[in-house]
Amino acid sequence: MKLSALLSVLPEKKVFGNQAPEITGVVYDPLRVTPGCLYVAINIYTQLDKIEIPDGHPLLPDAVRAGAVAVVLQQDQPVPAGVVKILVPDSRYALALLAVEFYRHPARSLQLIGVTGTNGKTTTTHVIESLLMTRYRAGLIGTLYYKINGRICNSKDTTPEPPDLAAIFTEMVNEKCDFCTMEVSSHAVDFHRVVGVDYQAAAWTNLSQDHLDWHKTMENYRHAKLRWLSSLGPQQHVALNHDDPSAPFFIERVRAQKVLYGLKNKADVTARDYRFSADGTRFTLVTPRGEIEVQAKLRGEFNLYNMLAGVAAVLHTPLTLAELKQGLEKNIAVAGRFQPIALGQPFSVIIDYAHTPDGMETVLRAARAMNPQRLITVFGCGGDRDRAKRPLMAAAVEAHSDRFIITDDNPRTEDPDQIVGDIMAGLQKKQSGAHEVIHNRRDAIRHALDQAQPGDLILVAGKGHESSQILKDRTIHFNDYEVAEELLREKGYGG
Questions:
Q1: CA–CA separation, 457 vs 299, rounded Å?
Q2: Which region holds residue 44: left if phi is over 0, alpha if psi is between -120 and 50, else beta?
Q3: pLDDT of residue 50
Q4: Are 357 and 208 spatial neighbours (Cβ–Cβ below 8 Å)?
Q5: Which of 18, 162, 196, 483 is the least buried, fewest Cβ under 10 Å from its Cβ?
């Protein structure tokens, strides 16, 4: 594509140099530059081999050496002779527009369903995928990976950067997908990752405290969600959790056709006669299309909400009640989301990603609903992230656990003792003897397993699917499920 044609999509720009070059790719990562590329130096944040770099502008020489023939900059600086310089007010916004144009708007060949919210995005997208694939070919983009017609592919971001996102959409189109469901994070909205991407439907799961290290206030966080949801017009559809306290805020401001779901307040999609067990959730699904009995394998009230969100998000499609039932009753396995480990041990072990006060509260209530003899929780809080949520998480754990072990999550550059101190500030009964502090996460999980008695439930929370632990000076391989399974086998379970 000619550079001149590509740049025509930018509303504000200053161009220095000849716009005739043929552009072979649009990239933001100097390590991916090949001869003929347009390099976009993005501000704020990017990841190169897991090294956080605050600004892509200092990497301009690397991109030029690798063959970039044009560069987009937010901050003016000299460029070598023969390289076209394009100055823009916001390089991230420019990156999004350039990426979708270069890839010729592949998302327009798909019906997109986005999912946003503090908790439940990953499971809800998996529910939507399962529902759609009863009739259609479908893709999924999310925290864990992206999928094309059930095939799993690796991905590094919850919502990928625009060129990566456009490339994934192109791959889905080439493999004849009809739909794609994807997570849309608040960071993705702030970083303009979904600019130029048209959605037919969306789902909002909930809003609770998270990411305040970036957003600073809950109001900013809420408005990040709103900016994306309000971008959907009257011809699109939005599923909204009517039971969440923020529901009136979104109901009033969202322009799209609204489908309300919930269990407590009046809703278009709801469930009655629901019963939870270790085997799953049995309920009567109630929709504008009628009612039907469902025996789902997903467990817990929070997963019932995720299933209702998924159904509400696909009601604009012609899926029948029987197909909705079929999709909900599939084995919708999501790594690290209330994931059990069953090796024949006389107690339960569950791994979950809960890392917010609301998420922790929700998962603990679900664990309690399974009526264990004792609930033993292993958890910590991430370093260099929102400190205000740490005592709130501790309060939730203390309120619902019989015993709990405070351990390291991803301390990053922060002092682990400081993190524990912030957590401890939320405890009401520090002298009760119900808690212990064991910094080493493997040792903490081992200690919980050593304490377990028949009928107990051990919840290991915070990291879920993550396969690494970020320490001050290095990143190590660490997966809660793998570690717990290994320690159980050491105890002789699992054959």
A1: 14
A2: left
A3: 39
A4: yes
A5: 18
CA distance 418 to 380: 12
396 three-state secondary structure: helix
Rama region for 300: left / alpha / beta (φ>0; ψ in -120 to 50; rest): left
23 close to 1: Cβ distance less than 8 angstroms: yes
Q: Tell the burial category of 454 from Cβ atoms under 10 Å away from its Cβ (0-12, 13-18, 19+).
A: exposed
Q: HEC string of 258-283?
A: EEEECCCCCCCEEEEEEEEECCEEEE
Amino acid at site 269: V
| Helix (H), strand (E) counts: the chain | 16, 26
Residue 298, both tokens: 């997903």
Q: Judging by beta carbons within 10 Å of its beta carbon (0-12, 13-18, 19+), is residue 91 exposed, middle or buried?
A: buried
Question: Which stretches in the chain have pLDDT values below 70?
Answer: 43-54, 156-158, 209-216
pLDDT at position 119, please? 86
> Does residue 155 contact residue 145 with C-beta atoms inside 8 Å?
yes
Residues 101 and 493: their CA atoms lie apart, in Å, by 55
C-alpha of 438 from chain center: 28
Fold classification of 3-102 is: 3.40.1390
Supply the mean pLDDT for the chain.
92
* The pLDDT of residue 89: 96
The pLDDT assigned to 216 comes to 62
Q: Output the pLDDT for position 385.
A: 86
The β-bridge relationship of strands 138-141 and 146-148 is antiparallel
* Residue type for position 223: H
Look up the CATH number of domain 106-329. Answer: 3.40.1190.10
pLDDT at 104: 95
Assigned token pair, 64:
């030029």
Helix, strand, or coil (residue 434): coil
> What is the pTM (predicted TM-score) of this model?
0.82
Q: How many residues does the chain have?
A: 495
Q: Where does 172-328 show beta strands of DSSP type E?
A: 179-183, 201-204, 237-241, 257-261, 270-277, 280-287, 290-296
Residues with Cβ within 8 Å of residue 417, at least 6 apart in sequence: none
Q: Phi and psi for 424 in degrees, rounded to 5?
A: -60, -25
Name the CATH superfamily, with its identifier, for domain 339-490: Mur ligase, C-terminal domain (3.90.190.20)
Q: List the structure tokens of 245.
A: 């306290």
